[in-house]
């Protein structure tokens, strides 16, 4: 798997490891506040209840969680992708 490093567009200070080039990548420090929030759905709560290190090192997982907190729902594809990445990181 090829990974790239891109500077966070918010603070322009920290680098974020990404898999695919994206326009707007944010680092963990900038995302931290947006990752806080109450999740009421038990299934979602369980899914997002992963090692915090995963959120630190993976901007994709952060973006999925932020999406959920913002819109209150995710597509099947997003859920699937989230679980896949978590599984991959757990094996490391
Ligand atoms: Zn940043």
What does this 3D model show about the protein?
The chain is mainly alpha-helical. It has a domain of 63 residues. Strands 1-2 form a two-stranded antiparallel sheet. Strand 1 and strand 2 form a beta hairpin. The radius of gyration is 13 Å and the shape is globular. The mean pLDDT is 92.
Give the gist of this structure.
By secondary structure, the chain is mostly helical. The protein has helices at residues 28-31, 42-48, 52-57, 59-71, 76-91; strands spanning 4-7, 15-18. The protein has a domain at 29-91.
The order of strands across the largest sheet is 1-2
Number of extended strands: 2
Oligomeric state of the chains in view: single chain
Taking Cα atoms only, what radius of gyration do you get, to the nearest Å? 13 Å
User: Largest sheet at a glance?
Assistant: 2 strands, antiparallel
Parts with pLDDT < 50 across at least 5 consecutive residues: none
Tell me which ligands are bound. zinc ion
Beta percentage is: 5-15%
Succession of helices and strands = EEHHHHH
Residues in helix, %: 40-55%
Provide a count of the helices. Answer: 5
Overall morphology: globular
- Which structural class do you get from the secondary structure elements? mainly alpha
């Amino acid at each position: 798997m090829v990974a790239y490093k891109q500077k966070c567009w918010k603070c322009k200070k920290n680098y974020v490891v990404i898999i695919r080039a994206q326009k707007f990548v944010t680092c963990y420090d900038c995302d931290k506040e947006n990752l806080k929030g109450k999740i009421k759905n038990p299934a979602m709560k369980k899914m997002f209840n992963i090692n915090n290190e995963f959120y630190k090192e993976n901007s994709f997982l952060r973006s999925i969680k932020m999406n959920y907190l913002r819109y209150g729902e995710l597509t099947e594809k997003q859920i699937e992708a989230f679980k896949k990445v978590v599984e991959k990181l757990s094996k490391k």
